[in-house]
Design a protein that fits this description.
By secondary structure, this protein is of the alpha/beta class. About 40% of the residues lie in helices and about 15% in strands. It is globular and about 70 Å long.
């Protein structure tokens, strides 16, 4: 299937072709026709599967046709609610790229910056609005926004919205929109509370579910290292010196862990930056731009801070801490191996995280390749005996590490 098979307008096809997209992803191939048919849709698909284009392209087409034929076309016609400022900006960029040959206007409103410039843009009129819940409610309370003309309502990253405590805000926002509208819900996972929410805002929806095991790109190598927790920093430095190169994202579970690892890697001479929820928006934006512009080769992040950020040409992912939610693992590794390019994911598992690995493998429906040839394997007894199948490799690894310092290779 090609995008030309989806009955999209030539102007949209031209725009996406210039972005070098020709073949729709699985979620795009299923969602775009349903949205063009003006159906309510609920989609479950992981990060990296092309969800933004799956709703952006048909929205642009539907609204462009309306605006071309309606001289009284006014007010905001589509509202996309998303949980983070980074996602807001990313979705705005995508809409502007895909709609550049249309007559539609798009803007994003989010917290952490002044309200006044956003009010001015809204006052001048906009067709498509992308917003975080808190800022949208602030603008509505001040009478700076009118949602009475909404025709297409999108709730993006619904499960993250739930995790961040925004569901009450989302319900309030949806109630400010007309009852008669097309509603789209996109989420990586569909827990029970999201099911309940969908029943209140979507009538007779088309349900699209993309299996995580199918969306984990075949071009992503996945390698697993079992080792003591206290040796994770050592294995990280070992792999950065001997094995991993290029643009790397390292995931940690907590902001304290992020800060600690950033300090260690910086002291070891690596160009590193980081993002987490306690950093200001300005600092987070600069970190992402530095990573994109290759001023830093390593980005360390927590899952919530990194959710939805689109960074091209990431060569490797390191799961410094194994996520306790299996779908989060798929989110993480999906940041490499995009657009048909190869990528690799390294995961460091300490004994207390073994159950997380089992859950991940169950979700993937296949085992992750275990690497035993490394300097910090788990021991079998208090005498620090190395596991039998790694003794020779372990000794060899320690002996040859210095000689391999400048030799880059994939295991």
């Amino acid at each position: 299937m090609q995008f030309t098979d989806l009955q999209l307008h030539p102007s949209i096809l031209k725009a996406i072709s210039e972005e070098r997209f020709h073949t729709p992803t699985q979620v795009q191939g299923q969602a775009i026709p349903a949205i063009l048919a003006k159906r309510n849709v609920i989609v479950s698909a992981q990060t990296g599967t092309g969800k933004t284009a799956a709703f952006a392209l048909p929205i642009i087409q539907l609204l462009s046709e309306r605006k071309d034929n309606d001289e009284k076309f006014s007010k905001i016609k589509s509202l996309i609610v998303t949980p983070t400022r980074e996602l807001c900006l990313q979705i705005e960029d995508n809409f502007k790229s895909y709609s550049k040959y249309s007559n539609l206007t798009t803007t994003a409103v989010y917290g952490g910056v002044s309200l006044e410039p956003q009010k001015e843009i809204l006052n001048n009129g906009v067709d498509i609005l992308i917003a975080t819940p808190g800022r949208l409610i602030d603008l509505q309370k001040q009478g700076a926004i009118d949602l009475s003309g909404i025709e297409i309502f999108v709730l993006d990253e619904a499960d993250l919205m739930l995790d961040m405590g925004f569901i009450t805000d989302v319900t309030q926002i949806e109630s400010l929109c007309p009852r008669k509208k097309q509603s789209l819900l996109f989420s990586a996972t569909i827990p029970e509370k999201i099911v309940e929410l969908s029943k209140t805002i979507l009538k007779n929806p088309v349900t699209i579910k993309i299996n995580p095991s199918e969306t984990t790109a075949k071009t992503i190598g996945q390698l697993l290292y079992y080792l003591p927790k206290k040796k994770k920093t050592d294995i990280c430095l070992h792999l950065l010196r001997n094995t991993i190169n290029g643009k790397i994202i390292i995931f940690r579970r907590t902001r304290i862990g992020v800060d600690k690892l950033e300090e260690t890697l910086s002291k070891n001479g690596y160009k590193v930056t980081s993002i987490h929820g306690e950093k200001t928006q300005l600092t987070r934006n600069k970190a992402i731009e530095d990573f994109k512009d290759k001023k830093a080769s390593i980005l360390i992040a927590t899952d919530v801070a990194a959710r939805g950020i689109d960074i091209n040409n990431v060569d490797a992912i390191i799961n410094f801490d194994i996520p306790n939610i299996p779908e989060t693992y798929v989110h993480r590794i999906g940041r490499t191996g995009r657009a048909g390019k190869s990528g690799i994911a390294f995961s460091f598992c300490s004994p207390d995280e073994n159950t997380y690995i089992k859950s991940i493998e169950e979700l993937l429906q296949r085992p992750i390749k275990v690497i035993t040839d490394h300097p910090y394997p788990l021991v079998q007894s208090k005498k620090q005996k190395v596991q039998p199948n790694t003794i020779s490799q372990h000794k060899k690894g320690r002996k040859s590490e210095a000689s391999k310092k400048n030799k880059k290779r994939w295991y």
